[in-house]
Design a protein that fits this description.
The protein is α/β, with parallel strands linked by helices and 346 residues long. It has twelve helices and 14 strands. The mean pLDDT is 92.
Amino acid sequence: MSMDKHSLVGLLPQDMSSFMESVGEPLYRARQVTEWIYRKKVPSFDHMSTLPQSLRDALKKNFFLAQGKIVHTLTSHDGTVKYLVAFPDGQAVEAVSIPQGKRLTLCVSSQVGCAVGCPYCATGKAGFTRDLESQEIVEEVWMAQKANDQRIGNLVFMGMGEPLLNYTNLSRAILVLNHPQGMGIGTRHITVSTTGVPSKMVQLARDWEQVNLAVSLHAPDNDLRTELVPVSRAWPLREVMEAVDEVIGLTNRRMTVEYTLWNGINDLVSHAHALAALCRGRLLHVNLIPGNPGGGKRFRPSSLPRVLTFQGILREKGIPVTIRKERGRDIQAACGELYRTWTQAE
């Protein structure tokens, strides 16, 4: 193996087989290492007390435990916590833990910044820097878990970046996050949110049938959607909905449509009727998301009466619909706000 140091977080026992062979250790030692990492979440190699000292020394010489670090946290009055996770190259992402009773959900980032460029999104305004490596994605979860007394039971890839534009690293991260010798989080407790990359939506359904998929539409027609979600220039709404149909056909599972509401832009009665027509006959659930401040003068969040009217029309048309309760708004941890705090501070 390369003499360059790599993180152990994000590896599975089979990934360490050649190393164990090179230092004369049996493969079961690799399983012990991952147990110390993922189950006991030790802070250093010295805490791996079931390993011989010679192996601990070899691990120190060849690996980091993890390379990322939580360098800042913000805590909301509602218990939501936002973490700024920095990596050795000076880049950073945000992850958000959201407690709900006995459940703890972590919102995970997949890229530094975002290339989609939605005009109301702070992450999009920051621009795109690079993809996260699979181990960096796993490190986000691992570090957030270490920072919480409560077990993270649900993951949502709704943080910074478009997950499906970083598909190889996303899929590898899901493997480690789900694996019984990794983080052990069930695939039905993992949701990937996308702005709509048709071929990768279908690939995710083939590779990870039980992983939940959510598609951010934000508009019921292609012209308006192209304005709100510029990626529609590459993948029009028609192609996204064809992929939705294919995914549902492959998984026979309900998908979520995410729809952020902006006053006078996409929250009119006509928009509600058009969205209902688009969803009718499909195994879809609509999640309405009142917009968040920070999108500029043009993007004002829809008022509660307008949100309720929109919801009512969908219900009348037989479309399953809920209104998402926003969390962490006071620390800019809600949808479309990630990285806003740090870019403003620069």
